[in-house]
Amino acid sequence: MDAGLAAVLGAVAGASGAVGAGLVTGISQWKTAKFGARAEHTRQRREFRQASYRKFIEAHWAFAEIVDSFYFEQDPTPEIFTSQTADRLEEAMKGVQTAFLDVALAGPKEVAHAAEEQNSTVRVTAKRFHEIALCYAGADGYESDAIPGFFQSLQGATAMLGIRDFLDVAPIALDNDGSDKRRG
């Protein structure tokens, strides 16, 4: 083999090695960047979920605190069912609804479903309370003989105001880093 051919073959081998090393380095850097981006996305998603869940819990507790402040078991009384209290409940309900929208966007679906159940219960509670207040106020279309039915429905709704299901699934969603390949 002559020296010229050996030099060319050596140069080709060196260039091939350099290209191979460059490819390995490039792929390695690409995977590292992809891993870092995924980790950053997971961190941001967790922070958004945590803030959304906290806002929902706080809004729910604010609503429940108003309901608890006029603890009622037996017959409804006009002193409890005032338009001012109904307005306070409606305002607190709006806070729960706004917070629910953030939870629904943050997901996952198990958490959004638990939040939707509580959102529905809050809406029914506020609506029934308002209807009883309207009956006591003598509003058109609201007769006092409807109060017992509204009150029974209100008692059923307030019994469902517990937020335990939401509190059970929310931490699981916060701990899910996506590595188990399930959506969430």
Describe what this molecule looks like in 3D.
The protein has 184 residues and is an all-alpha fold. The chain has a domain at 49-175: de novo design (two linked rop proteins), CATH 1.20.1440. It is built from five helices and no strands. It has helices spanning 3-69, 83-106, 109-137, 147-159, 164-175. The longest helix has 67 residues, at 3-69. The mean pLDDT is 83.
Mean pLDDT level: 83
Number of helices: 5
Briefly note the structural class of the backbone: mainly alpha
N/C terminus separation: 64 Å
Return residue spans where pLDDT drops below 50 for at least 5 consecutive residues: none
**H-E string:** HHHHH
- Which CATH class of the domain at 49-175? Mainly Alpha
Q: What about the largest sheet?
A: none
- What share of residues are in beta strands? under 5%
Number of strands: 0
Task: Label this structure with key terms.
about 180 residues; mainly alpha; de novo design (two linked rop proteins); 5 helices; about 80% helix
Outline of the structure:
The protein is built from 5 helices and no strands.
